[in-house]
Specification:
The complex is a heterodimer of chains A (600) and B (188).
Chain A (H helix, E strand, L loop, with lengths): L1 H20 E6 L24 E8 L1 E11 L3 E9 L4 E11 L4 E10 L3 E5 L11 E10 L6 E11 L2 E15 L7 E7 L2 H6 L8 H21 L3 E5 L14 E3 L6 E4 L1 H11 L16 E3 L16 H20 L6 E5 L22 H14 L7 E8 L3 H7 L6 E5 L10 H6 L3 E6 L13 H9 L3 E4 L12 E2 L8 E3 L8 E3 L1 H37 L3 H5 L15 H12 L9 H13 L4
Parallel strand pairs in A: 2-10, 5-21, 11-12, 11-20, 15-16, 16-17, 17-18, 18-19, 19-20
Antiparallel strand pairs in A: 1-3, 3-8, 4-7, 4-9, 5-6, 5-8, 9-10, 13-14, 22-23
Helix pairs in contact in A: 3-4, 5-6, 9-10, 10-13
Chain B lengths: L8 H7 L8 H17 L2 H5 L4 H8 L8 H4 L5 H15 L7 E7 L5 E6 L15 E2 L2 H9 L3 E3 L5 E9 L5 E10 L9
Antiparallel strand pairs in B: 1-2, 1-6, 2-3, 4-5, 5-6
Helix pairs in contact in B: 2-6
The chains are: A alpha/beta (600), B alpha+beta (188).
Chain lengths: 600, 188
């Protein structure tokens, strides 16, 4: 008996030492862990390691949290499982060494199957001294979920020792609308980057290689759509080269110029234009709302004929055929954008299409609008729009080009000086987006919410992240620029055919879900009050601070401004906003659900 | 949107180390185009393309504005259009993709600037900047007036030829270029 008691005590001590050595904790999505058992510096305020979490969610969206396993001892046989009555997607978080500050941050999310067996430290991530691994959990709350309280738990098996954390999700009657109130766009250029990011999938050449490129691009449309964003890829470069598939194939010259094949274009874009590329997503199939056309000064008309009758003949022939093709395909839900990206500094053409700075370039926009109108039947059901990305002279362009441009993409900071133009633009039915960059991984987690929030507060229709698919040359070794040019990563390293998401993309998606609900509440008549409460909760500011700049634009003509002049003039506006706190959006989320409980 | 040119030529070369060289027949065609370009291009018109204002900004950098030269780059449209159309016609002499680019020295410096590029976006020299250091091969053309063939980048051939004005001065050069390497066109 005495001997048996001794053995029991010994067993308890041994298993107790296991329990002390490892732990399973739960964190909100806004407090990102590091690989050494801590929280990244920018997300530390308000962070707590818990063994249970209570979440609230509307229907038709996701709710997220993180699981972190900390262990002082290596674990070769850890297993993580989740029990949940609602569908769960789990991702393992990749810790990137961020070159600018030499610290590790989790960002790329690699999908894993549950239960998931793993080791500690992560042999693949290869971090010296790692004693924490992290997992992102998305719980999908389907639109038809019955409101109520749902319980779940995550279980870690570390050898023979088990740890549990519980999560409780209060599902409210509110339902996130299928259509987002703001367009949060991820932009990209060309297809050459695919070859770098997918060296194995695109190692070959010929038709199979081309088909793989098309398939990969469709995966990019899909990942941004599933995360409540839109995606753009521009198919031509500054001197007018059009990538294969981005335009129908042409033949002939002058009055005889015409389309000879839609094969590649239809294979690349057909599935995103009819929505079939999105089959199987939780949001369901839907055509993309916006898309760049390949039109540029060198396509479809040959620049050789610029200023001559042949230019108009080639342009109207081909664009007219495009309209017919789109109509016959019933691609009438998408806005096809005639957008000029070239800049004269790149020496392809004599005028700036993008960010026009010189007033003499406006006449080109008017000329192309005239050509477009000549090419299209007046009663076309296809939505052709003319887009201008504007910065230096946006206010002048909004007047001079008012009859030509109907999609404005305005520089995010400078737009504050032209915000008074917004009602007139909206009155005439224009779409107005802002554009800018993407917060770095070293910025506080909730900074990803700032641009979507400003978009909604200002009443703008969308925000374009000007480059969102370029993680740099070796993102899984080090992020050379803090991830400021990407929200997704190539999945090829992990055996996945296509991109994988990031924590920042997930946080952005959750922000958009809440803004969709806030807009529903605002439409009930208390818009200003709702917005005022939201910005106060977010960073203790007021609406006037968001919508007006305390300082005017630089003096003189825009053509004489420098970038330093603009930065100086914007500084008083920017300085009104205190640094965001990690839980800033959590407060907005809680407010949103509190006020939208009855919405459906 | 804020402009950063990302020329992936280096990447292209890293990814496609092996490709067929441009044939000698092709090389002869490029040389012939270059010879004709020297005859056809009007150096006086070329000298009028870049505005004095753009050159002034190119030569006097603003310490707090790294984009100053690019943001203030402008051309005289008529001179640009006339010359670009000639370059396009010259490229059409070949039955395969060829670009004819115009390069001109940056006055009072040792630098060169590409002034006109064309739709295949081929060049062995352009680095995406408004101006750049002048390669020795270009110096040679500007100094001697002879045509120079350059095959530094695998799969690419450029023939450089002088452009003269009405005084007989060499004021620039053309790069007649073709490539058998896969294209790379990710410009942002």
């Amino acid at each position: 008996m005495r001997k048996f008691t001794f053995k029991l005590v010994l067993l308890l001590l041994v298993s107790g030492s296991c329990c002390w050595a490892s732990d399973l904790a739960v964190l909100s999505g806004y407090h990102r862990p590091d690989p050494f058992g801590g929280i990244v510096a920018s997300d530390r305020p308000g962070a707590s390691w818990d063994h249970a979490i209570k979440l609230s969610a509307a229907r038709g969206g996701y709710v997220s949290f993180q699981l972190v396993i900390k262990s002082d001892n290596p674990c070769n046989n850890c297993k993580l499982s989740i029990e949940s009555s609602q569908p769960v997607d789990m991702y393992r978080e990749w810790f990137h060494l961020n070159t600018p500050d030499k610290h590790y941050y989790p960002d790329a999310l690699i999908p894993v199957q549950l239960p998931y067996s793993f080791q500690m430290p992560d042999p693949e991530n290869g971090i010296q001294g790692q004693n924490a691994r992290a997992f992102w959990v998305d719980v999908w709350i389907a639109p038809n979920t019955k409101p109520g309280v749902y319980h779940g738990q995550a279980r870690l098996m570390d050898g023979s020792v088990s740890h549990k954390v519980r999560f409780t999700i209060s599902v409210l009657p509110a339902e996130i609308p299928a259509q987002d109130v703001i367009d949060i766009d991820s932009n990209s250029y060309g297809i050459g980057w695919l070859r770098h990011q997918y060296p194995n999938a695109l190692a070959g050449s010929g038709d199979a290689n081309e088909e793989e490129q098309f398939h990969l691009l469709q995966q990019y449309y899909r990942i941004f759509y599933e995360n409540r964003g839109i995606y753009h890829v521009l198919g031509y470069s500054h001197s007018g080269y059009v990538d294969p598939g981005f335009a129908p194939e042409l033949d002939g010259t002058g009055a005889q110029k015409h389309i000879v094949s839609w094969d590649k274009f239809d294979r690349l874009f057909g599935p995103v234009l009819d929505g079939s590329a999105f089959a199987g997503t939780r949001r369901g199939p839907s055509p993309i709302p916006f898309m760049y056309l390949p039109i540029n000064p060198e396509w479809p008309a040959n620049y050789l004929w610029w200023g001559e009758p042949g230019y108009q003949a080639e342009f109207t022939n081909v664009v007219g055929e495009m309209e017919r093709h789109f109509r016959e395909k019933n691609w009438t839900s998408t806005h096809f954008e005639m957008f000029f990206n070239q800049k004269k500094r790149y020496k392809g053409f004599e005028w700036d299409g993008d960010e026009e700075r010189f007033p003499e370039d406006y006449s080109y926009m008017l000329a192309y609008h005239d050509l477009l109108m000549k090419a299209l039947p007046a009663d076309t059901p296809v939505h052709f729009v003319m887009r201008a990305d504007v910065s230096w002279t946006m206010q002048q362009q909004m007047h001079v080009l008012k009859d030509a441009i109907n999609l404005w993409c305005a520089a995010g900071g400078m737009f504050i000086w032209s915000a008074d133009e917004l009602p007139a633009l909206k009155q005439r039915g224009d779409t107005v987006w802002n554009y800018g960059g993407t917060p770095s991984v070293q910025d506080v987690s909730t900074s990803i919410a700032s641009d979507p929030l400003r978009t909604w507060v200002l009443g703008v229709d969308g925000f374009v992240r000007w480059l969102a698919v370029d993680p740099g040359p070796h993102p899984f070794q080090a992020l050379s620029d803090g991830g400021t040019e990407t929200l997704v990563y190539p999945g090829e390293r992990f055996g996945l055919e296509g991109p994988i998401p990031s924590i920042r993309l997930k946080l952005q998606r959750n922000t958009i879900q809440d803004i969709d609900l806030l807009e529903m509440e605002a439409r009930r008549g208390s818009r200003d009050s709702i917005k005022a409460q939201v910005v106060r909760l977010f960073d203790n500011t007021n609406l006037a601070q968001w919508s007006h700049s305390p300082s005017p634009p630089p003096a003189g003509q825009a053509v004489d401004w420098t970038n330093a002049d603009i930065s100086d003039a914007l500084k008083p506006y920017d300085e009104q906003f205190p640094p965001a706190q990690p839980d800033a959006w959590q407060r907005v989320h809680d407010f949103t659900l509190e006020h939208s409980g009855g919405l459906q | 949107m804020k402009a950063i040119v990302s020329l992936l030529l280096g990447l292209q070369l890293a990814l496609f180390p092996a490709h067929a060289a441009v044939s000698s027949a092709q090389e002869n065609t490029l040389d012939e185009i270059a010879r004709v370009a020297t005859i056809m291009l009007d150096g006086d018109v070329c000298q009028r393309i870049v505005t004095a204002r753009a050159l002034a900004h190119m030569l006097h950098s603003a310490p707090r504005d790294e984009w100053q030269a690019g943001d203030n780059y402008e051309v005289n449209n008529d001179a640009f259009i006339q010359t670009k159309k000639t370059l396009i016609r010259l490229a059409m002499i070949a039955t395969y993709p060829v670009d004819v680019n115009l390069w001109m020295p940056v006055p009072n410096t040792q630098d060169i600037q590409v002034v006109i590029r064309n739709k295949h976006e081929l060049s062995q020299f352009w680095n995406g900047e408004v101006r750049q250091a002048m390669p020795a091969s270009m110096q040679q053309v500007l100094k001697t007036g002879t045509r120079v063939t350059v095959t530094e980048k695998p799969g690419m051939v450029s023939v450089l030829a002088p452009v003269r004005n009405s005084l007989g001065e060499i004021v620039g050069l053309v790069e007649v270029v073709s490539s058998n390497a896969p294209p790379a066109h990710d410009e942002q």
